[in-house]
Design a protein that fits this description.
8-stranded parallel sheet, globular, alpha/beta, TIM Barrel
Length: about 300
Amino acid sequence: MVSGSGHTSRSLPAAARLTHIPEGSPLSARSLLVCADDFGLHPAIDSAVLELAGRARLSGTGCLVDGPSFAMNAAALRQSGLQAGLHLNFTEALGREGLYLPLGQLIRACWARRLDPIAVRGQIAAQLARYEDVMGRVPDYVDGHQHVHQFPQIRDALHAELAARYPAGGPRPWLRCTVAASMRGMPPMARFKAGVIALLGARSQCRHARRMGFEMNRGLLGVYGFRGGAAVYAVLLRAWLGAAQPGDLIMCHPSAQAVPDDALGDQRRAEFEVWSSDEVGEWLQRFNLQIHRGVSCRPGPAHAA
């Protein structure tokens, strides 16, 4: 069982605080999804996710089902009230046999269609089965670790496996649309990364998923260069919240402490600091935003592509 991080709510540095934000409409709150990635990768990540769930700062979390802490902390996740999804993985072996490749090599293989389609679908089926065995239910949604769910070959196999495994009319996961919701006011690195994600199949994935009848979020926020600490992240988050439209999704990667040998480094801890701060509650109120909660919540329509 994961233990609490001991983090207490506090204000961000003055430079990161709210300055001027126009008041939102008083008629009704605008709803959005906030999903934390990588549950199960490390106990510190799980701890941060569960604490943010207790603060009503998350809608859900995507699970790396072969991660070392997933099974250990699954019971706490079930009790958290969060949506729980499969964070489909083809790039982190995590001690398992299978089709795992470095991201650049995987991208080249998918676009050249060199992967064995039977192995691809088999790996997807195995991760879905692992999720069901541990969580005892259908995943609420499916997305991809490093957005692999949108890559050619993987995308096609995923949609086919989901359609066969979860027929329309019964419990069925929704899918993450990775089309950028808004780049207004974003720094060059964030714009560049959003452009790369788009080139790697964002719109194609949405078109294909829509034809297959899957629900999706409207658009994606939360893309940036994973640098700058809490002060930079707070400025970005404030901009994302200001740009959010109903049905958009903000992805995040919080951790209660730095994870050893992790590419995101200390930035996970910075994200956790910001999301658990008092200022986020103020920004949500000022922007008239409401974070979706509970497995009954469904995303809005995806962007036309």
